[in-house]
Amino acid sequence: MPGDEKGDVQDSDDKWALEADVDSEEAGVFLPVLRNVVLLVAMCLVIAWFVSSFSSGTIINPPERALQGRQLLATVSPPQPGSQPGGHEMTIPAGAGGHFLVDATANGVAVRFLIDTGASGILLTQADAQKAGIHPASLTFTDRVQTANGDMLVARSNLRQIRIAGLRVDDMEVWVTRSPMPVSLLGMSFLRRLASYEAQKDGLVLRW
Asked: Which residues does 90 contact at the CB level (< 8 Å), separation at least 6?
């Protein structure tokens, strides 16, 4: 009947309206949850990128930190070959006449040296060379050096190691003289292998 059809239409409209309300309520609950999940995933991705960048060293330092690093590299000398870097120092006290005498080892044997900033190299007496394993008879004395005692004929050789207390310098070229000398000389070729040296009122400071 017409009245029944109208009632059926009304019931149908109410049903769709009810379903629409249910969908809206579900959407109202689902969308905030979905948004929170997306935000959480995004935050996790950002944190993961930050951690990976930090561990791989790709994060750029602030300009002032980078500048300080460049200044530091500009003021620190490179390690000297054959020496032991490490921020150490020692003071060699001045002896009679202001001379700096030091008991060292050359190739593991005891040798007394006079540290002489006026000498360009290391000059060994024949006796000290012999003790250090350098045999003067096998050398050719053809080079000439000038010393405070005049010109000397010398022969070139090498020392495997020179050690003064905790200071060690490896592979040093030396000259051996056959002229009489009271003590062997430790000159600039040795001192240049250090980080620095400085003559002070209480002695000669060696830094390495």
From this structure: 164, 165, 166, 167, 205, 206
Calpha distance 191→119 (Å, rounded): 10
Composition of the chain by helix, strand, coil, percent to 5: 40, 30, 30
Say whether 167 sits in a helix, a strand or coil: strand
- To the question of domain 89-207 being in CATH 2.40.70.10, the answer is yes
Q: How far is CA 93 from the centre of its chain?
A: 30
How do the pLDDT tens digits run along the chain, 208 residues long?
444 544 454 555 555 454 555 455 555 556 666 777 767 776 766 565 544 443 333 222 222 222 222 222 222 233 444 444 568 999 999 988 889 999 999 999 999 999 999 899 999 999 999 999 999 999 999 999 887 777 889 999 999 999 999 999 999 999 999 999 999 999 999 999 999 999 998 899 999 9
| Domain range summary for the chain, segments of one domain joined by + | 2-59, 89-207
Parallel, antiparallel, or unpaired for β 109-115 and 184-186? parallel
Tokens of 192: 């240049």
Rg, C-alpha atoms of the chain: 42
pTM summary value: 0.58
Give 159: exposed, middle or buried? Use CB within 10 Å, 0-12, 13-18, 19+: buried
